[in-house]
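Running this now, will post back.
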Amino acid sequence: MRAVASPRAARRPVARRTAISIQPARPADKSQPADESRTAQPRRLTAWLLSPACLLTGYLAVHLGYLAYLSIFVFQGQAFSDTNIYRAWAAEGFPQNVQPSPWVYPMVGLLPIWISGLAGPGPFLILWVVLTSLLNGAALGILSGWGRKVEGLRAGWWWLVFITLMGLLGFARVDGVTAPIVLMGLSLGVASPFAASAILAFATWMKIWPAAALLPLFAVVRDRWKVMVGAAPVTAAVVAAA
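Update: finished.
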């Protein structure tokens, strides 16, 4: 005859099997992930700023912004600042007696003014700003190794901020055309002294001041003869054209 277990005995094993130990949860240690997130954000921002796409975006924003603003003058049949003088020179075929002043620049200074005047006096300022913008873009590309050099991208941002702070004056004078050409020459510098010297000589024949950049180039380049030889054919070509 089998013994019948009491209700208390029958329930005891089940109680042991289903017992749950409840302990208060330990607070999660969030200090390390928070620190990582705080340091990750500046790193992501720096990586984005030092990307070729970001530099290109900044370049387009600055130059399209100035182009849009200066277009207002074009729609009113005007130019801006010194480009009024350049437009008059181009329209009259560069005579010596055009007011408010006679021709004062070296020979190659004719070139950007002539290019901007090809379509007549109406769109002169637009073509001038486009020409300046293209030269600035080429200078940024050479300076940054076309986006391959991190240190070049940093220098490219410095140049872009400089253009922005210069404002409309950077788009209204021959210096605005000459400056990016000088930057191209200095960017090549020690690596290609012959090409750098030729570019700087070309800029000097556009406006006198780039000649000052030839002196430090001559001082730092080991093969100084390349600096002298690079400038010679450019000078000879300008004299022959004159």
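The chain has a mean pLDDT of 85. More later if anyone needs it.
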